[in-house]
Structures are given as C-alpha cells and as structure tokens.
Amino acid sequence: MRNRPRQRLLAATLAATFGSVLATWSIPSAAQAAAPAPAQVFDLQVPSQPLASALNELSRQTGAQVFAGADLLAGVSSRAVSGRLTVEQALAAMLAETRLEATRTTSGGFAIRRASEAATGATLQEIRVTATADRESATGPVAGYVAKRSATGTKTDTPIIETPQSISVVTADQMQVQKAQSLQDALGYTAGVASQVVNANPLTSDSLLLRGFESVPESGNFYRDGMRYMTTIFGGKQEPYGLERLEVIKGASSVLYGAVAPGGLINSVSKRPTLTPLRELNLEYGSFNRKQASADFGGALDENGVWSYRLTALVRDSDTPVDYTRDDRVYIAPALTWRPSAATSLTLLANYQRMRTSSSGALPAEGTLLPNPYGKLPRDRFLGEPSRNDFNNDTTSVGWQFDHAFSDTLKLHHGFRYLKSDLFNQYDLGFEPTDHRTRSRLGWTFDDRATVATTDTHLEYTLGTGAVRHTILAGFDYSRDTYDSDRRLDLLAPIDIFLPVYGKAPLAFIRDENPRRENERFGVYVQDQMKITDRWVLLLGGRQDWVRSKEKDLSQDPIGDNRKDDAFTGRAGVVYLADNGLAPYASFSQSFEPVSGSDRAGSRFKPTTGEQYEFGIRYQPKDSNMLLSAAVYDLRRQNVITVDPIDNRNSVQTGEVRSRGLELEAKASLTRNLNLIAAYSYTDARVTQSNTPEELGTRFRAPYHLFSLWADYGLGEFGLPGWRIGGGVRHSSDNPGYYNGGKATPGFTLVDLRLSYERGPMSYALNIKNLSDKTYISGECYFYGCRYGDPRTVTATVSYRW
Question: Is 270-801 in the same CATH topology as 149-269?
Fold first, then answer.
C-alpha cells in the first residue's frame, strides 16, 4: 500500500514518456518529411542575430533541416530577413555578408560551407531585407529588460500583451545588471511584489508578498519550468544565476497549476542549452568578505546542431551583515538538448545546490523598532549561539522537457522533475526581554528530508474557423511531495542583548517533534485561446483537481489526519488589440488551497477559495522595445478560518480577507543608450469578515505604497565608449503588521547604484545597494522580534566573455 503513490507516478510518467517517444518515431514530422521544394515560399521573420540562432529560427519557421559546423558559425552574425521567401532566398540573404554559402544535401536539407572567393564576390539575387525586432521564445533569453512573450500565464508561447492577467518578467540581463543575489533582490523592482517587507529569514528562505498575500513553497507559490518546486520554507533558496528569467503571474491562478495561494505564483525558468557559443567567467568580491566565482558555458556539440549543452556553475564564500553568520554556496546545473529535427526536442535539466549558511536571527522590538532605556541594538548583533547556528542544505534536482510537433497545428509537451532536499538546521528563537535587556531563548534542531516528484503533460492544437483562430490546450499534471522532520526543542540560557556572552549549554530538554507529511495532487485542465479577426483575444479555461494529504506527528499523534479534497476552478478573460499598440483587458480567475483541521461538529474544513476580478491595459507600440501596463483588481480569499462564535475553543470557516489595488509597471529601451524600469503598487489588504471584532477591518502585512525606479545609460555619446551608469530607488510605505499580533513598522527608501565598463571580452562593474546605508526594519515584528534590512552592500565584478 505504501508504494502505490510511487507506482501511480511512475505509471503516469512512463505512459506519457513512452507515448511521446512512440509518437515521435511513428508519425512523420514536418522536418522528417521531404524538405520544402525550392519553389515553396514562406512568410518569414528572422531578426538579425548570431548566425547559429538565425539558422535555428529559419528551421523552426520552415521545417527545413540546415546543417553547419560550430567552427563555421562561431562569431558570425546574420542579417535580418523579412518577407515571402524561399528557403534558398532566405539563406542567401543571411549569408550575404559572410564567406559562407548554403548548398542542398542529398537528403533534401541544406549544408553551410565556406564559399570560394568567386562565389563570395558573386552578385546575389535582390531580396527584401529589413531590420526587425528580436524574436524571443517564452523560455529563451531576452536581450535587455523587456520580455514580450511568456508561457507562465497560458502554458503556451503567447505574447504578454495578449494575456488577460498581470504578468511581470525579470530577465537574466536585469538580474545581472542589478546584481540580484536572491529572488527577493530580483523582484525588488516589480509591481505587486513586496519582496523587502517579509519577516522570514532572508538567508535561508524564499518568501515574499504577492498582492498582499504571503507566498511560500508550502502554499504552492513557487514553480520551476512550469512545475511545482520545493515543498517547505526550509528547502533553501533558488540561485538567480541559474535562471534565464523569473516570471510572476499575479492573482488567483489555480486553473493551470492547481492548489496555490491567491496572491499568484513565481515561475523561474532554468537556463537551457543554446546553439550559439556561450562562454562566460565572473569573479566577484564585495562587502562582508564576499567572494564568488561563476561560469556559464553553452553551445552545439556536433556539426549539425543536433546536440547542444549548457553548464552553469557558481561557488561562493561569504560572511553576512550579522555576526557569526555565513552565506556559502555551491551551485552546478548541467543541461543537454537533443534536437533530431525542427519538430522534436528533448532537454535534460539537472542542478545541485549546497548551502552552508545560518539564521540571521531576529532582535527584540525594544532596541530596534521601539526605544530601549539602554540604547539601540546594532545591526550586526547576534543573539543566538554561534556553535548551534547552522543551515546545511543539499538539494538535487533532475528532470526533462520533451516537445514534439506532430504537424503545424498539433504539439505535445511533457515535463518531469524529481527533487530531493536534505537539511540539518539549528537556530535559536528569542523573546522580548521583561527587564529591557535579558532575553529568554529556545533552541531548535531540525533534521529534514523532503522530496517533490512532479510531471506535466499537455497537447496544444491550433485551428481556424473563419475569422476565429483557436489555440486549444488540454492536459494533466501530477505531483507527490513528502516531508519528514525530526526536531528537538531545548531551553537555552538567557542572554544579555547588550553584552551577550555565548557558549552556555542548554538548560533543559523540552520535547521532540516528528512531523510527517505527504501530499498527492492530480489535475486535468483545458483552455481555449480564441483570436478573433486579430482584434480580440478571448481566453476560457477550467480545471478539476483532486488532492490527497496525510499529516501526522510520530511523537504525539502517530495515526494523524488523512484527508481528500477536490475543487473546480476556472478563468475567463478578454483582450482588445488596437492598431496603436493599446490592449485593454478584463478577467476573472479562481484559486483554492486545502486546509487542515475540522470544526466543532467534526466536519473537515473545506479548501479556502480565491476569486479575482482584474481590469487592465497594456501599451506596446509596434516595432518598439517597451511594454507599459496598468491594472486594478479585487482579490478575495474566502472560507478563512475564524473563531467559532458558539465555542471559542473551535473554529468555523466564515472569515474573509480582501486585497484591492492598483499596479503600474513600465519597462523600456527608450533610446539606444537608455533603459528604464518603473513600478508602482497601491495595495489595500484587510480583513472583511471575522468573528473576532478587533480583527474586522484591520489591514494586514502589505504596505499601501510600493514604488521603484531604475535607469541605466550608456555614456558613449559623451566620449566614454564602453562606460555605463545606472541607479535606482525603492520605496515602501509603512508595513501595517498582521492582525494576529505583528507590530507595524515604518516605511523606508533605498537607493542603488551601478557603474560599469566594457571593452572587448572584458567587463567591469561596481554595484552598491542601499547607497545611503539606511537603517530600516524589514517586514513586521512578531513576538520573537524584528529583522533589520541589509546595510550598504558593495560588490565588484570582473567578467570575461568570449
């Protein structure tokens, strides 16, 4: 009986994989069929880019096989090609300014080879060639800050402007320029995301607020490559250097992903193999003795580009702003792609991360947020025990992404990943002093093991019916996660917060805890994207989920609680695409989350539900590199647990919390030298229904106002070629705290700065965060204290790319 979940996962995965492979070999694809005849004309749009990428894009648009040796393509760029052309004409235009030529192979494809001098000087047929905007894919790299396509909102490669729900994308270029050292850093300039005002340990956990609601792994808010990632807040942090992009879909989003908190979800996209040669080395040194080396390599492994690879690695040795804490990491992510034809690809993705860090610890409110007669506590003060301050986490992930096009209208996608995380964690929890300086403490020791196995399979079918073009998506996903923890709680000796003395042995053992948790989630979904006369986009989707959960504590309740839940969620939205680049939209979406426990009558609690109404408008002028967006929303979580009015020892599900807000966001390359990012969020999150009178109407967690602005400018026109200067400001108004006891904290404004110089393959950069060294409290203050935000942090980087 114990192995049945694994058997079901294995059966589902093998069936999908076997079906994918069988379909690949038994149904001829466009690329496996005879190559297009010379006279066949295609409507092509291939932007100027490295030649290897241009040839791959031409193959994708035409189904023609093009073979070339990596040594021929290295360092060669292609001209942009646009119009109705044959494959031969397109290749001739691409190679017009190179010493290469394309010839037909006996199999009907094309081979790129060096041209003779006579051929190089030959007059080519006149072909219309125009410069076009770079074409991107939903999972590929983006040049600069402005992403125009995403799959997070629809699970199809869709222009963001055609998606009727708020989506923000942070590109690898933005993370590199702003020197993001965590997901919170990377999202610091994103509308609707409060990444600097949460109370979780910033060294060990990815945690933030989306539209006022807490987003953590337990709530299903974190995804990687479109599939659920991690299972607890103790699973460690994701490494930004391993990501191609970071995408946020805001608001209720269960229709494609299943159980998830209503604020939205964060989907991180892994770096993947590329045919374009990629070689990068980086060395960093910064504040708090931070030393880091990173490398990123990729390219084709054979002459025909059938095999390609990516290898991303990082190693860091660093202290932190808090005494007796560290932030050491090793990250390595190999990836391999097999692309036997333009219609089929299999990408193997793996990563290993080793974290050796610590809890930064919270400090008492008296001496940080509140006055203390003995003075103010310094930002580097540590009030735990140095000998028992470890967060040792090892995470391994392996999986694949398989795609096959049966035809121009029918495509299959299948993904799978298995993640395993092991943790040894020791940290201390302190309380407010009763005499202004003596703090009582508890000591936790965790020995955790967690796994997540997840798979997602769907078919995408496009068809036209008169003036309507449908993109129909149908699929299923399955995940199984486990969490086993052996915990020990000890009473520690009190500590003087102003004159701490370390090294005292625990005073007494309090208890053991042995929580065990297992969740299985299975969902089927269907979606129809209808494009009507190229003016309207109508999106309809529905999903049915089944969730099975087992929870127990071996030390207290070995039988535990087994429960089954199911839920149906939907989404509907409409977008109008105007000629001038404006795209107003409206949408309705739903979400759900299972809830543990039961009411006074013994009836199990139902899942909480989320509902969002959103109205927005985007602006993306044709042939521009900008995307402006504005949205207003009403987002509610219902079936929230509140006290039972008949028996206050029990609870009922009549509570409701609501978040309303306005979000503005702009990303643009305004000129050849100037890039701009701007974001503003107004969030009114409060309790709207509660059986506790003092809670009713109170705000929770989210600041009213979040504002950020970033700009960087190239100084070449001022006689400083290669030099670039950038800077940003981030502002948060006061944090109202939480209605269950969190203390409000004042707002703050932070200034960031960057100066860089690039010449040839070398580049040098200096990043400064919190330039004014502002002292501020990050997030609300709980019963165990407050956390200071990061002080001024300086990082110098030397990079070599060739």
Answer: no
- H or E segment and range at residue 567: strand 557-576
Residue 90 has what pLDDT? 85
pTM of the model: 0.84
Closest CA to 222 of 212, 563, 210, 211: 210
Q: Which residues have CB under 8 Å from 671's CB, separation 6+?
A: none
Place of tokens 């939907």: 570
Task: Centre a 10 Å sphere on the Cβ of residue 711 and count the other Cβ atoms it contains.
Answer: 16
How far apart are alpha carbons 469 and 461 in whole angstroms? 11
Read off the pLDDT of each residue in 470-489 and give the average, rounded to a whole number.
Answer: 96
pLDDT(792) > 90: yes
User: CB of 576 within 8 A of CB of 535?
Assistant: yes
Question: Which string of DSSP letters, residue by residue, matches 658-695?
Answer: EEEEEEEEEEEE-SSSEEEEEEEEEEEEEEEE-SSTTT
Tens-digit pLDDT profile for residues 678-726:
999 999 999 999 999 888 999 888 899 999 999 999 998 899 999 999 9
Residue 388: phi and psi, rounded to 5, are -135, 50
Fold that domain 270-801 belongs to in CATH? Maltoporin; Chain A (2.40.170)
Q: Is CATH 2.170.130.10 the right assignment for the domain spanning 149-269?
A: yes
For residue 360, give the nearest of 388, 310, 321, 313 by alpha carbon: 321
The string of DSSP letters for 396-458 reads: EEEEEEEEEESSSSEEEEEEEEEEEEEEEEEEEEE---SSSSEEEEEEEEEEEEEEEEEEEEE
Q: Identify the pLDDT of residue 740.
A: 61
- For 79-91, b/e burial (b = at least 16 CB within 10 A) is bbbbbebbbbbbb
Structure tokens given for 786: 């407050």
- Per-residue pLDDT at 21 exceeds 60: no
Task: Count the Cβ atoms, other than its own, within 10 Å of residue 289.
Answer: 11
* Cβ-contact 782, 199 below 8 angstroms: yes
Residue 747 neighbours by CB under 8 Å, 6+ apart: 703, 705, 731, 732, 733, 734, 735
* Interatomic CA distance for residues 607 and 622, integer angstroms: 44
Helix-helix angle 51-62:87-94, to 10 degrees: 170
Longest alpha-carbon distance in the chain:
95
439 vs 502: CA distance, rounded Å: 13
Residue 403 and residue 345 in contact, taking contact as beta carbons nearer than 8 Å:
yes
pLDDT(12) > 60: no
- The residue among 681, 583, 679, 666 whose CA lies nearest residue 632 is 681
Domain ranges of the chain: 149-269, 270-801
| Main-chain dihedrals φ then ψ at residue 197, nearest 5 degrees | -125, 30
